Amino acid sequence: MNDIDLIKYFMSKSPQFWNEINFSDIDPKHRNVLKNFSNEFQYEKFVKEIRSWKMQDDGPIPFQANMYHLKRNGYKKIFINYLKHLLSKFKKYDLTVSLYDDINILKKIDAFELLKENPVHLTPYSNDFYFVDKDTSTNYRWNKYIYYANTIIKKKIFKDDHIWIDIGSYYGGLQGILAKYFNKYKIILIDFHHQLCRSYLYLNRLYPNSKHVIGEEIDNINSILEKPDNTFIYLSINNLTKIKFIKPFLTTNMFSFGEMTENTFKDYYESNYINETKYLYLVNRFVSSPFFEDTYKNNINIFNYEKNTFKRLYFDIFPINHYQTPYRDLYGRKAARPVSSSYFEQILERIN
Fold first, then answer.
1. Using alpha carbons only, what angle is made at residue 130 by residues 345 and 94, rounded to the nearest 5 degrees?
2. pTM over cut 0.70
3. How far is it, in rounded angstroms, from Cα 146 to Cα 297?
4. Torsion sign over Cα 80, 336, 168, 21
5. Coarse DSSP helix, strand, coil percentages of the chain, rounded to the nearest 5 percent
6. If the chain, 352 residues long, is cut into consecutive pieces of 10 residues, what is the mean pLDDT of each piece?
């Protein structure tokens, strides 16, 4: 099927595709994301914006123009990127500087080889990329995915023929990298329908021979998981009861727990599948809403991530994108400032 046919098929199996904005306990940020998506949806536009669109993107990259950029993006986008580059210099701030820091961090933890094996410009729907060398490319978001994948592989917190649940998968970039390094896998992606649809297209292009199951197609999830197929399951937020009694080997959440309402966070974090997971890998804000800049309008902080049935295997500052100073308005003044709360990285292991 072509891209638009895949989108239509996904929608046909997702009866609540357009109703998520009516769910009562969605945080303000994601309600706005859903509203913008609903208002501006067009099939052709959606295909062009699988990875980067008005509300979420692959992040800023340093200006660069070569024949590969010209072939993929054309003169118009190169010109727009050049204007953005000039504007950042005029305002005396440049978010792209942190991309160089991230690349050096990947080298420091021996993850650069993984990046070389997975250049972002060769992945589906990639339009924003920066060449580190002749054959190695990356972007702001891709550096995070390479870091996560390297951690999961090196720390051996996922194994062949086991179940991995990822909460907040966006377009499936991390899943696309990791599936390459395992012979057998069962990967459950949890997100809003439009995000899952992005993942569905992206992972279909990467792994056409794997089984791709839309959450609404699931009658008996255990029978699906017991089959020998390499399987991606796309599960929307309104279908979580279908995995209520699953015991995954790995469960991950990167960034989005700290953005949720407290009730939604509690529903996830106290769920049976998280309590029964072997490993829990988290990257989130130390404080979701510091008193001086209440970013996400909740009271979630590092203490909410404690679990007395788990032991801590790893804890530190999350280093990728750490050295960024976004330009924003605060107290009536626009300036380049660090984020109001940095992010922790934590790996927990369930105590048997």
1. 70
2. yes
3. 30
4. negative
5. 45, 20, 40
6. 96 93 87 94 96 91 76 73 67 76 97 98 94 94 98 97 97 98 97 97 97 89 91 95 95 97 96 98 98 94 97 98 89 90 98 90
